[in-house]
Amino acid sequence: MEDKKYKKNLLMYPLGTVGRDMMYVLFNSYILTYTMYTRTLTNAQLAAITAIMVGARIFDAINDPIMGNIIERTRTKWGKFKPWMLSGVVLTSVVIYVIFNSKLEGWAYIWEFGICYFLYSITYTMHDISYWGMIPALSSDGDKRNTYTSRATLFAGIGSTLAQILIPMLTAGALALGGSSRVAYGRIALIIGILAPIFICFTVFGVEERQDDMTKPAKPLSLKSILNTFTKNDQLLWITFIFLIQQIGNNIVLNGIGNNYIYFEFGYDGSLYSLFTTVGMAATAFLMIFYPAISKKIHRNDLVKIMGIIGVLGYIIQLSAGLLLAATTLKFYIITIGFMLANFGQYGLYLIMMISIINTVEYNEWKNGSRDEAIVASVRPFITKLASALVVVITSATYMLTKATNFTNQISEFEQSVTKGLIDETTAANSISQVINSTSSLQTNGLLIAMTVLPCVLMLISCVLYRKYYILTEEKYNEICKELNEH
Question: Interior CA angle at 53 toward 51 and 56, to 5°?
Fold first, then answer.
């Protein structure tokens, strides 16, 4: 009976995140690109958008442990996770449809952008914390937990990879839906906004989780209890800090700098960036599938070292090809292969960090007497969003330093002219090609350095800190679980 439940959960739980991660990629990776290529922005407006994104993501990061605390104290016949999953996904779908179908311009659009961005921060947190917070409630067995985590990240990867491939392909260049970026993004937002609630229903209606703590009366919401969970758990504090450093470097390429580099260096063709991300992320599929088996053979500390070496090699290949070779097809493929290796290393570290965060639940119970699953689980999205806020600052600063917006504004004007029927698609494509050809090494090399050197340095720092300060090795974790079971 238990084995049948495990197999069912292993299918239904991961399916729920496919649509969620498509929403995440659309909003977090492409909202700035969408804005830059569908609106003409002044420096003041770009600064305002940057401030909104940073403010909203910091607010979102702070809100994560609060949401985790609320979920921890939720008591319903459906459990504490599922009500927040379903309602959060539906509300997020509404928000992304509204912002990606906006017809406002100038400062009116900036105001709408700000309102929708903060609403997205709240609604996405509702289902993100509850979804990942469910893993400790599915099993306390280390191997099963590894399998749940890797399987969920596999399906999350399927959703995010599909989005990373299709969104640029269908929004820039000859394959743009409706002939322009603005129409294309609106249609994609509608499709993803429908798919996400459908996928989350697999988890909501198909998963059975442990509800041992549901018999205990819910404690009142307490900011002090959130703070205590962090301050009294030294391993949670360390892994939070290490994960933050790693995630800043990990997110730089796919949050705007990568696609602008590809467009400026090789042409305004979304299919090229789709190929870049497809090949670049293909190697991660190997880890998504085989990480549980690998983790049984190689200790996490050794894996951290291996992933760091692979990542460094990938960044060196990208930087060398980018600076030394002419903008040819060969250069594109070498840079793409370099990105694949770098992304392999970074994704391997991400999986290790995920497991390391979740394992602090038992450490917390062993040391402080309470599991606080949802609060601990809120660390992952908390750090991801805090890191993304810092990435926005890095991205916008890079655009300003390289004067990239001078060129994206010109492209945006041609995109808007197509939408309004003032020019045809062929004329727009030719004009955009002229804009791309007028870029210089300031733009291309500046973007290249930002997407290779900085991520590499941050990745190395996170590897060193992990191996030195995170002490919950496989052996230590098993000892803790054994002691908890004996009591």
Answer: 100
Q: Is the pLDDT higher at 109 or at 478?
A: 109
pLDDT at 213 over 60: no
Structure tokens at 395: 């991205």
* Residue 234 amino acid letter: D
Q: How far apart are CA 33 and CA 25, in angstroms?
A: 12
Tens-place pLDDT, residues 286-343: 777 777 788 778 888 899 999 999 999 999 999 999 999 888 889 999 999 999 999 9
Which spans in 359-452 are helix H?
A: 360-368, 373-377, 379-402, 405-419, 425-437, 441-450
8 A C-beta contact, residue 268 and residue 313: no
Q: Which residue has the higher pLDDT, 138 or 152?
A: 152
Rounded to an integer, what distance in angstroms lies between the CA atom of residue 462 and that of residue 212? 36
Indicate if the alpha-carbon torsion angle 269, 273, 274, 279 is positive or negative.
positive
Residue 268 three-state SS: coil
* CB of 448 closer than 8 Å to CB of 316: no
Q: Is the pLDDT of residue 351 over 70?
A: yes
d(CA 405, CA 32) in angstroms, rounded, equals: 12
Render 359-380 in DSSP notation, one character per residue.
THHHHHHHHHS---HHHHHTHH
**Pair 347, 336: CB distance under 8 Å:** no
Query: Average pLDDT for residues 26-53, to the nearest whole number?
Result: 86
The SS3 of residue 20 is: helix
**Mapped to the 3 state alphabet, what secondary structure does 212-240 carry?**
HHHHCCCCCCCHHHHHHHHHCCHHHHHHH
Average pLDDT over residues 131-136: 78
CA distances from 209 to 12, 135, 300 (A): 12, 9, 27
Residues 152, 17 contacting (CB under 8 angstroms): yes
Comparing CA positions, the residue from 451, 229, 227, 248 lying closest to residue 353 is: 248
pLDDT of residue 91: 95
Q: Residues 194, 196, 199, 205: what is their CA dihedral angle, to the nearest 10 degrees?
A: -100
Those residues with Cβ within 8 angstroms of residue 166's Cβ, 6 or more apart along the chain or in another chain: 188, 274
Q: Which residues neighbour 20 within 8 Å (Cβ) at sequence distance 6 or greater? A: 89, 127, 128, 131, 156, 159, 196, 199, 200
Average pLDDT of the chain? 84
Q: How far is 111 from 52, CA to CA, in rounded Å?
A: 9
Q: Using an 8 Å Cβ cutoff, are 236 and 10 in contact? A: no
